[in-house]
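P.,

For your records, the input lines for the assembly:
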Amino acid sequence: MLRQIITLLLAQFVAIFIFCCGFFPQKNVLKGNADFIIESSIQTQSKPVFDKFVLIVVDALRSDFVFEESISNFKFVHSLINDGEAWGFTAYSNPPTVTLPRLKGITTGSTPNFLDAILNVAEDDSSSNLKEQDSWLKQFVRQGKKMRFFGDDTWLKLFPLDFFQEYEGTNSFFVSDFEQVDLNVTRHLPHQLETQKDWDVLILHYLGLDHIGHKGGARSVFMPGKHAEMDSIVKNIYENVDENTLVCVMGDHGMNEVGNHGGSSPGETSSALVMISKKLKQFQPPLHQRDVHLPITTQFQDGEVNYDYLTKVQQVDFVPTLAALFNIPIPKNNVGIIIPDFLQLLDSKMAAIKVKDNFNQLASLLGRTLEVKNESINEEFEQMKDLQEVLTKSATNYKYPILAAGFGLLTVLTAVALWYGISIMQLSKSSLLTIVLSLLLGIATFSSSFVEEEHQIWWWVITGALLLSQLYLRKALGLHFVCFVCVRLIRGWNNSGQKYTYDNTIFELLKANPGVQWYLNILTIFTVGLGGSLGDRLSFILSFSLCALCGSYKISWAIVNREDVPFWMQELAFKSCLFFTKEHTNPEEVFGKALVPMAQFFFKYFIACLVVKISASKIGVCKANLFSMLSILLMFQSPTANIPLFFIFEVLRAALSRLFTDYYGSNTYFVSLSSLLLQYFTFYQFGGTNSIASIDLSNAYNGVPENYNIYLVGFMMFVSNFAPTIYWSLYKSTIPRPESRKWILYAEQKIPFLIFNCVVGVFLLIACYVFRFHLFIWSVFSPKLCYFVSWNIFMNIIIECGLESIVWAVGN
Amino acid sequence: MSLKNKRSSVKKSVSFSDDNTLTRNNLKKHVDHDNPPVYVRRTTLTVPWHIFALLYYYIYISNSYDTVALLYLLIPLQITYLVFQFNKSTVYGKKLLKIKLPLVLISLCATLLLTIPTTVIIILFGAPLIEKLFETWLLSLHLCFLAYPAVYQVFNGDFKVGLWKRYFVMIVVGAWTSCIVIPLDWDRYWQTWPIPVVVGGYLGALVGYSIGAFI
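Structure tokens returned:
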């Protein structure tokens, strides 16, 4: 039975994988390079407006970071805009708002492909290369301009290295570093500014601001300092260049208040764009900038910030504007429109030609030929806007045969799984519940709001299940009450979804009361970690030392990230840090330097403990209680204010365990269903959503030195995001069971999961197919599909079949 | 003195379980004269027409779902419903009991007290704890007064809850089911807390009182 179930599970994964191959295809792009189309001889002969270009990309530079009063610290940029020497814009960056697709947008002017968002994580990929695609960099190269690049090495993956005369890449994945990553870029600046004759285009890409966002959110204490640093860089450059140089400061995307990005919320899609040149003073600033004094005070709309400051443009509009100003052909796949305000920099005849050229290029992308009419420029802009809308919508083409193959395979598998599952489970209450639950969640995938607010469904189902259980049993009121209080506390811990955010979540309350938080954290780490290992000495020693190590690492981590920690805990952590570093004097340095070796030691020690415990239990020296030990690892990988959740988990687990053994005769399917419910429920209440933006990276780098391994970081990212899910998946093994039927029970518990995944999978694939041209496909349905796939790989295969079978094999 | 003794002996038999309640089903098998069988007659008399009217008022007439005004209408209508419809369908032994005015008042107070644990339960079911506490209490008032006829009968029937439990359960199920509309992104006014749950509770009560005798 076990073998058949695992085969079905794997086959189901293959089916979904096939579907994804067809669903996330490469976008069809026009090959080759663009040339001037309209009046090409006049265009080639005319002189460009500027002859030097400095592009400063500041990663995740949201519009309000530059323009808004309460948050912005770009004082020099403000004065430039107020003097009219700089023009500011709020640029809409098309989702997915992560660096790689956005860079493609900024350089080629095209709309991104969803696959790029995932490739942004899996970095060693060559298919996202822009060697063959037309971009303004390529056009500059064709004109023989000399380019230099310093900053995020994503650029070096996108473009052939021979584009750049000089370059140095910095790595974008080491998020915990705020300072060095930017200093590595800035240190090249003095030399470059001295030798301005030797280059035409200088590109800088700063990552520090994005890193601060990921660690501490948009209003982190590190933000003002970083703003000032970026501001001084702009000042330094501006004061050292002549009036024929265009300096452009832009964000590749924004961020939400928590500092994450990837989705399509206003904060994430509103990035800043500032064009700076001494020449601009001679011209009229854009309409929306004329009577405005920067910094601007916040504009509230229904109590929410909308991040619209000054003129609103599309980020891709930057590309044709740049092409017009530097007199290069507009890149072939561009969907941007020249920003009208810049036309006054060209003479009127040239301006008309450039607009026509842009129009023509957009039309050719759609496969239409230009209807030559002598329309006014305004009408042409109107038409171009329509074209742009059509183009951004029809960005991808799907491979229908592959979609059909994947879907067909999954449908067949679902039928088999249903037939097989029900033949084993029989028509019982549990099989009915499984099917109702699967259908409910399956149908919910058709509604974009239920995908965004999936935590609400799980909460609804959990309360319903407890209610049903209470009405069914009529006894055990106390146990049900305890369960209810526990799930309600879990529910109140974090916000999830996009619609409602409560300010008074327990997470926020604990952040505001660090004293309480840390006492709870320490209490939780020790009670959960020592659970069940009190009887024998060996497990006690192992677990206790692991707990102590975990606690002191979490404290040190919090201190490095400037959270408040009670003083005596700081002292204890300081003493433990001294073991891991040679530094002895400056406490800040000690904590900073001890962090990585300490985490590495924790992981090594953890594995050693695991091995010792398994072998000791084999010879009968100690109890094989792997569950509590693994919980320590899960707490180690959780955000600090989420750690006390594990205490509640423990109480809930005890209550459920009593409930199932005393009243349900340890019914294996009920245990399995409760595990399924709690896995999803706690995943969302841990802060997870179905949006790429909420992936938490802050614990993915524990113990990772500079030269890191992408797979390790990826694995730790999964563990930290799925920590509660792993806990509730392994919980099944802690329910008392007859040892002789162990593996039969293990297999039986997989059946509800199998049915659930198959049925929901079928519905999800249909939803993705039906909504493939829907507005929300890239922001709602595709991320959901990605979550579904990663849930399949990570939870269903690695954890449920891998780790769990080890825990079962070792036994209790 | 003897009266006092008798009362206390009644008190001893107070039970919240189903065991002592005799319903129509076991009427013939077992007749206990100390505890006469209690059941609700299967008539259309129990259909709470006023809840239709109240729902119509709430959704179409009242000014942007005035939950407070609805409560003012609900309480007298529920009392009328109890006196003229529900009590007249409830059979104790072989007779109908007359409505007892003190008991009407006592159960009104009890219903009011019941709102406190109900508020706690609603919060356990996911209502925000700190924000919108008044709305949550308002909801619990509605739900409790919807259950008011059943509360009266619980008092009337020496706390034998079993028969009346289904009415409470139907209201809870109605309220629980209606939550499903809250996360939808339609951005309508009626999605705000607690409007959908109030409507759900009313629908649950409507179904509960109409078919309660048949289950």
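Two observations worth noting. Residues 39-214 of chain B form one domain. The longest helix of chain B spans residues 101-124.

Regards
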